[in-house]
Amino acid sequence: MWCIPKVNAAFVACMEDILDLYELPYDAKYPLVCFDETPKQLIMETRLPLPPKPGYPERFDYEYQRNGVRNLFMFLEPLAGRREVLIRQRRTKQDFSHAIQWLVDEIHPEAECIRIVLDNLNTHTIAALYETFPPEEANRLRKKIELHYTPKHASWLNMAEIEFSIFGRKCLAKRIPDDITLHKEVKALVTYRNNRDSTIDWQFTTDDARIKLNRLYPSYLE
What we know:
Blueprint lengths: L8 H14 L9 E14 L18 E14 L4 E7 L4 H15 L6 E5 L7 H7 L2 H10 E5 L10 H13 L6 H17 L10 H7 L10
Parallel strand pairs: 1-4, 4-5
Antiparallel strand pairs: 1-2, 2-3
């Protein structure tokens, strides 16, 4: 359920900035990438599950073994029908910075500037680049990206959340025991959806927001 402040001009400004981005046509020189992250706990079964049979789904024992937590970084290009997922052991500023470096150098080396929609977390900053890399490298990456933050309590504006919900239903909801299996499951789904050019048809526009969320907008004196 959406959680939105009653009246907040800063919220409106961030929201309209992102909605306007979503209305732009695809441009390979200025690709739009929605970035998000989510944790995944690795869980190993201590007993073999009972296989499904007519009238009964597959059943698991209540006991299990925790094998740590991994962090998934999602890079989604909604207009290109492309997504990539990096799996890391942590979600620090350094992990974020290396993910951005990978996006710039491996995924879009020919882009003039990559426009990134992302949540306003304390690790998602330009400063993180300077805490991770020498100033020359941090500055090079800074010039190649443009960060567009979702407002507070409005991560629903980030289309990467939609993609993560699909991954949750398809592979992340089940118990995954180890790194090898996690990488295999995620890679298989990434490949499948990329091969199908699975795009996201975003319908909510700035004009819609001014009607449906009019209570959010400040009142102006004529």
